[in-house]
């Protein structure tokens, strides 16, 4: 793997998980020493982070990690609404019903994953969100639209940061499991309109939860 790719992945992970907080200056000397690479590949990595929207130039301070405001999240969810509803609709038309029937059942039984994450004090909710990622991947594969998949990948990158701020709790996660089960069931039933509607409801409730935790857009 190229040095710039390694640096990009490391910095992206640090930003998404919150190890590099919003407003942190990505100083070339400091980061190149920390990651054990020269400044040229580091600049390439930071340029890619800027293109992703995870970093941005700021008032002569150099490049800093971007912030996540309620308005930013509202804008993100507007884009999610368009992309994810379309993807679910296409998946219902093109996907294998058996795949989504299986996923629906897993979400119907997801309480055990949520309890396990809680018992393990896992702040990333890795067990549950691995299941969510599998549903995302199945929808992407079924929709079979490369451009749509690429656009969703960038949205989900930012969503991973938003989840840290939303302060998920077991009750909300149980509710999302039911919402995801409904989405998977609609796709399995080959009902594009219901799949899109179920996705829209899930996104609306997720945004409501975030805004309740952080405050409305200013």
TrEMBL record:
Q: What SMART domains does the record tag this protein with?
A: FCD, HTH_GNTR
The UniProt keyword set, sorted, is: DNA-binding, Transcription, Transcription regulation
Which residue intervals define the domain HTH gntR-type in the entry?
Answer: 1-68
Superkingdom, according to UniProt? Bacteria
Alphabetized PANTHER family for the sequence: TRANSCRIPTIONAL REGULATOR, GNTR FAMILY, UXU OPERON TRANSCRIPTIONAL REGULATOR
Q: What is this protein called?
A: GntR family transcriptional regulator
